[in-house]
Design a protein that fits this description.
The chain is an all-alpha fold. It has one domain. About 55% of the residues lie in helices and about 0% in strands. α3 packs antiparallel against α5 and α4 packs parallel to α5.
């Protein structure tokens, strides 16, 4: 199989990054505000902890656990809208098949 020439490689773009950076930040900010207002106290605590780690550049691994219907996906949607409203990239990852389909 032939190798692509260097000019073709240099023009290639990462479609995932292009898609992540093409969100309308104003729309995402409105979505975030609507979602954030309806967070429960527990969800808000998780949101604050994760966002503080992001803002402080501490990073981390966060495990969100709960039975079906407890708002795990809602929390991830809120976090994603918050970060995307600032023009940043969000890649949600899930460890189970059903959760990965939802995200």
């Amino acid at each position: 199989m032939p190798f692509p020439d260097t000019e073709t490689i240099s023009r290639a773009t990462n479609l995932l990054m292009v898609e992540e950076l093409s969100y309308d930040t104003e729309t995402m900010n409105n979505e975030f505000n609507n979602l954030f207002d309806l967070l429960t106290d527990e969800q808000r605590g998780g949101y604050n902890e994760i966002m503080n780690a992001l803002v402080d550049k501490k990073g981390g691994v966060f495990y969100v656990y709960g039975y079906g219907g407890t708002g795990k996906t809602y929390l991830w949607k809120t976090l994603s809208a918050s970060i995307r409203s600032k023009g940043e990239v969000v890649l949600n990852v899930a460890s189970s098949g059903i959760a990965s389909l939802l995200l």
